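Dear support,

I submitted the protein below through the web form. The confirmation email said the job was done, but the results page showed an empty box. After a refresh the structure appeared. I'm attaching both so you can tell me whether what I see now is the final result or a partial one.
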Amino acid sequence: MEMGNTPLVWWGLLVSTAAIAVVHAVAGPDHYLPFIAIGTARRWSYLRAFFITLVAGIAHVLSSVVIGVIGIAAGITLESLEFFEGSRGNIAGWLLILAGVLYLLWSLRRHTHHHLSMEFDDKKARRRSVLVWTLVAVFILGPCEPLVPLMFVAVQVSWWAVVVSSGLFLILTLVVMEAFVLAGLSGLKLMPAHLTHRAGNVLAALVIIALGATLMLLP
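What the results page shows now:
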């Protein structure tokens, strides 16, 4: 049943979208903790942290937008899409755990080898890149749970409402993610550098593993 295309309906849709987007991003520590932990351990600049968070956030939301649009256009039921989104969540959880374990092993190995050569530095740089893009891949696979149902509601108004609500959801998700990441990095920079340098990589790996396990346990 289609809803009326009236200002009241539009305001209700936009306010609901804004509230859901903010609560979803704030309540999900997987939206910002990995970037804070890794960024602190790897001593990312604010610009680098901003860019990586931006790419991951866009990938996270747009992957669900694509699934929602395909589902609506093809007449697939919301229940079927939610099951598919749940499967994506399990894959993302396993990937996060795997990335965390590999990062932990590398961190522990690094602490036992202090003789750094140019070759080792090159390998280390490649590992950093792999870790970052693994994190982005996890965000692509990680479901944006409330967005697809929201799109099914918006399409009852019009396809233009789907575009507007999805865009608003994306913008607010990115704002929350960036705010938390940059604030977290700023706060941790106040700690003595030797503490975050020595234990930062190990703690970052443990955070990633814990978040992956949390994704697996959530219904």
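Response: this is the final, complete result; the empty box was a page-load delay. Residues 114-122 have pLDDT under 50 and may be disordered.
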